[in-house]
Amino acid sequence: MNSLLSRLTSYSQSDYYPFHMPGHKRRPLAFPNPWSIDLTEITDFDNLHHAEGILLKLQERAARLFGARKSFCLVNGSTCGILAAVSACTKPGGKLLMSRNCHKSVYHGVSLRNLTPVYLMPELSEYGIMGSVSPEQVEHAFLKHPDLDAVLVVSPTYDGVVSDLKSIAAIAHSHGVPFIVDEAHGAHFPFSRRFPASALSLGADLVIQSLHKTLPAFTQTALLHIQSDRIAERKIHRFLGLYQTSSPSYLLMASMEECFRLLETEGEHLFDTFHKNLSLFYEKCRNLTQVQVYPAFGYARDMSKILISAEKLGISGKKLADLLREEFHLELEMASGHYALALSGLMDTEEGFSRLFHALSRIDRPSLYFREKNADIIHNETLYRIPKQDMTPAQALEKDGTDVLLSASAGRISREYLYLYPPGIPLLTPGERIDEELLSALARLKKLGLQPEGLWDMTNQWINVVNSSII
Q1: In Å, what is the CA distance from 45 to each residue of 34, 61, 224?
Q2: pLDDT at residue 382 in the model
Q3: Which residues, 6 or more positions from 466, have their beta carbon under 8 angstroms from its beta carbon?
Q4: What pLDDT shows up at residue 84?
Q5: Are the C-beta atoms of 224 and 84 separated by less than 8 Å?
Q6: Sequence-separated (6 or more) residues with CB below 8 Å from residue 258
Q7: Terminal CA-to-CA distance of the chain, rounded, Å?
């Protein structure tokens, strides 16, 4: 029978190498049979929502290890931490200054609190990839919107780009508002000086980190850190009670504990080995002529996010990822219009990096992997824009809607999200007006085999829009 369990089992026994989440890379840590330890809040096992014993100690251990004043364990991923942070820092109907390339969970927080989003569009890098949010952009936003409730920036981005968080924190605090950093992709930052500094050391008030993205812990494990007294702990606790399951998994929390143990006892050695393998990989890739492995760019970048482009061969990011998977059994994290992302971490092996370089060196030879020039390779500046915002997401969702053909929806106001997942950055949000540029970009994505998500109609033929009679 082709069940999920049988598929997982057979895949785990194959030679497919994971340049993707979760960060344990399928390499087992010390862990017993999961069925034998799948418990609930029985006597002497504490309660995550009212932690007084063993789970309180686990959270205190996390705070010491990561360098935070207070840490909360999350078993619903960074999503519930982001929702709690946004809710605790804003008033209903308020304003949130946020980078446009935030994860969809931030947008859901905006909807839940009926916030007006004020967007910071990251600067475009020389490689056509979203770069940093500048302090000047943040200061300018405060001049136009002095009534902002909070600032939220994603750093590092999905591509590893880091912003000048210290300067942004200083600006936010000078205007009397808290600074939230979605550091979901940077949980490894506090453990090695070879990576950018963590937001925890740069003035952020609330920091959310996904353990499972870059560290060896089970999927859905994350942390929410409080790093100042600008936000009352009780507010964070209250909103976590709303957004996090009332039946937290002890398996997930035990994997967090084992991750902490590994970092405490073997972290220095593991990170040294990881950096050595990563540096050697980049050094060898300098000899490639047709395939490009992007170097550092922007304010700063986490080089463990390996960005690869074969655009010179006319190969889109999607085709490159397909090629690496089908012919070399290397599974990447993400494919975009003109590049793909291989996510590496401290659990990656020397063999894994060698296999990736070998594959890229083979593709680098046009006689072996030449593709006809694809003139329709799409770049980020085409995809990620800020459409005209006619109403807030919450307002649009409260309006009556009607379904129209997506291809004929230009000029209508969306009641749905559209995004490529991963990374989940919206191309369109509820309350924004659909235009011909977006429809043209969607048509090009379809030709490249990239399928946006978010619409109720998973065939992407229909979209729900605000009734024109009530606008």
Answers
A1: 16, 17, 21
A2: 73
A3: 391, 396, 399, 400, 401, 412, 413, 414, 415
A4: 98
A5: yes
A6: 29, 30, 31, 216, 217
A7: 52
- The number of C-alpha atoms within 13 Å of 301 and in the hemisphere containing its C-beta is 19
37-84 pLDDT, tens digit per residue, is 999 999 999 999 999 999 999 999 999 999 999 999 999 999 999 999
Beta bridge partners, 301, equal: 161
Q: Which tokens hold the place of 136?
A: 């000047």
Question: What phi and psi values does residue 418 have, to the nearest 5 degrees?
Answer: -135, 125
C-alpha span between 150 and 420 (Å, rounded): 26
Q: What is the pLDDT of residues 356-369, one digit of tens each?
A: 999 999 999 866 55
Closest CA to 218 of 256, 190, 265: 256
According to DSSP, the residues that pair with 458 across neighbouring strands are: none
Bridge partners (DSSP) listed for residue 307: 341
Select from 223, 247, 246, 253 the least CA-distant residue to 236. 223
Question: The tokens of 378 are what?
Answer: 């799409």
Of residues 199, 176, 205, 169, the one with CA closest to residue 86: 205
Which tokens sit at 87? Answer: 């809710």
Residue 430 has pLDDT above 70, yes or no: yes
User: Tokens 């925890």 — which residue?
Assistant: 200
Percent of the chain with pLDDT over 90: 86
Distances (CA, A) of 180 to 89, 306, 418: 9, 26, 24
> What is the C-alpha to C-alpha distance for residues 336 and 332, in angstroms, rounded to an integer?
11
Average of per-residue pLDDT across 318-329: 95
Strand 206-210 relative to strand 179-182: parallel, antiparallel, unpaired? parallel
Measured CA to CA, the distance from residue 226 to residue 142 in angstroms comes to 24
Over residues 128-174, the pLDDT tens digits come to 888 899 999 999 999 999 999 999 999 999 999 999 999 999 999 99
Q: What does the alpha-carbon distance between residue 223 and residue 178 come to, in Å, rounded to a whole number?
A: 18
Residue with tokens 């591509």: 159
Residues 6+ apart with CB under 8 A from 64: none
